[in-house]
């Protein structure tokens, strides 16, 4: 029996038509999906009974994916920009997304299933705006730029609340909010600084390496800040003690992105060689497990449930992976060029992705909760069937294209 997922295909992003050669369609059980004739069988071979058993034993996850593909996928239309988008960030409280571009501007868009509407264009930095984040209440937007400036802006009025000029000696690479008024920044030279909007100077400054600080993350307790570096080292900082807590072994690739899972007890770290490293929280010196995510560089990731992560990067494909147990789920979406960043909406309904094509696409991922619960109940796995499925948000017609990027 061949499963052809083209009949279930529901595109979750507008201009994402991708042409694939029909000759490459996966044939699950060795039978052409376009040919309903039974192959010749040796008498008494019993192959028909085997196929019947496989049909009856079809994976529950496959059934869930197929059921979702038969439903229309609602999503906002794509946003096409004139300038390269460096970072994106969803508001934590409403249907608002911020796009930071290479010119130093931030574009604020309101979105719904019918349209994306430009509300405001804020000219904040004189060079590329590298990171944009909202505080917990969504009323303040923090930005950091290549011009070494850090700016806090009132989201409602667009007025500046605070501007730290020359906040770092090197261009600022990453920014992470810690609450309503506190945030941390990391620069190209390995310096991390903690800031409080109520103060004019940083609370502390620590040098953690010689290369850029690619990403930073903490849990709800905010005792430790974990920093990924371009030098392949994972460094944790004791925020209350204002000192380095641990430094990991040096990995053979740049550490590019991070995500928390399992009620913040597990830390997943992506690398420029496509590997994923899993750490137990507070045990940042050495990973507890590792996975080969794909052959291409991983640029970004976003956790979508306690167990499922979506990653993307150099090949422009958004892939979903269930981590506990480890299992490839399929393609969430795709761009024609490398993906720069990902974010998830405040209600968990959409993922947004931006690529080197100056576009931002939205992918409806509401089906993940159903898939996650099924896998939690039933850990039975059939890799052959996994490889045949693209997720409901994807327009890829050939399932093999998902696995072509995996090792």
TrEMBL record:
InterPro entries referenced in this protein's UniProt entry, alphabetically: WD40_repeat_CS (IPR019775), WD40_rpt (IPR001680), WDR55/POC1 (IPR050505)
**Pfam families, per the entry:** WDR55
Q: Does the keyword Calcium apply?
A: no
Ranges for the region named Disordered are 1-60
**Chain positions of WD repeats:** 332-373
**Listed Acidic residues bias regions:** 14-40, 50-60
Acetylation in keyword set:
no
Q: Which UniProt keywords apply?
A: Repeat, WD repeat
The UniProt regions of compositional bias labelled Basic and acidic residues, in chain numbering, are: 1-13
Q: What is this protein called?
A: WD repeat-containing protein 55 homolog
